[in-house]
Amino acid sequence: MKNQLLIYILIALAVPLKAQLGITVSSTLGQTTRWQTIPENFIVHRRADFLRFGTSGVIDYVFSLKKDAIRLRPALQLFYANSIYYPHYFNIGMIGFQGNIEFALWGKLDKQGKRTLFRPFIQLSPGVAMASMGYDRPIDSENKIFESFNSRCIAPSLGASAFLEFKLSPLLTIAPVVGIRYYNRLYWKDFTALVSKGSLVGTHDRSNMRELDLGVRVGLSFK
User: What's the Cα-to-Cα distance from 215 to each of 20, 115, 152, 157, 187, rounded to whole Å?
Assistant: First the structure.
């Protein structure tokens, strides 16, 4: 087994793949319809955004195949969003893995054989993350002492994005990115009962989450 593993590693190192390391930072707009209903009805008593605005960071490693027309981009994803309805605090954070594959919409050269200024790509992005949710609420009349409730769940997701990649130098690229991501039935243990103070139990502990990402990616080629 050790000999086979060594052979696989040597083969991988010998394959002439063009590789690139990238970092993407994005602002996110999220929607968690079922969770949102509970603080609206039991805390703020009005229409209110819940975990609406967040920040996402992605560190990726790109393998280019088929003359750079198809790319494999495994990535580490970080995400955080919060909502404050003083003196109530809610937050969600995620760390996860994305198995991305992307396709160039046209080649590196134009019809005259000149290098194009930019290349558009589309990307499909299945992923899975560990989601951690938190809720802090006061337990005294002066709002100085708080109790915290935390919950975790596995968060599978599916995303898609589009971006324009500008080549600034042989080693450096930059790309504006727009993407969407969907998380199915995230589970926040006891969320309904805690926020409603027992008026409801379990009815809104699960919620889908839709996310719009607007960001910029910087890539550095090294092979």
Answer: 18, 25, 27, 19, 27
SS3 labels along the chain: CHHHHHHHHHHHHHCCCEEEEEEEEEEEEEECHHHHHHHHHHHHCCCCCCCCEEEEEEEEEEEEECCCCEEEEEEEEEEEEEEEECCEEEEEEEEEEEEEEEEECCCCECCCCCECCEEEEEEEEEEEEEEEEEEEEECCCCCCCEEEEEEEEEEEEEEEEEEEEEECCCCEEEEEEEEEEEEEEEECCCHHHHHHCCCCCCCCCEEEEEEEEEEEEEEEECC
**The two three-digit tokens of residue 94, written as one number:** 């995620």
Inform me whether the pLDDT recorded for 217 exceeds 60.
yes
In this predicted structure, what is the pLDDT of residue 12? 44
At 158-204, the pLDDT tens digits run 999 999 999 898 889 999 999 999 999 999 999 999 999 999 999 99
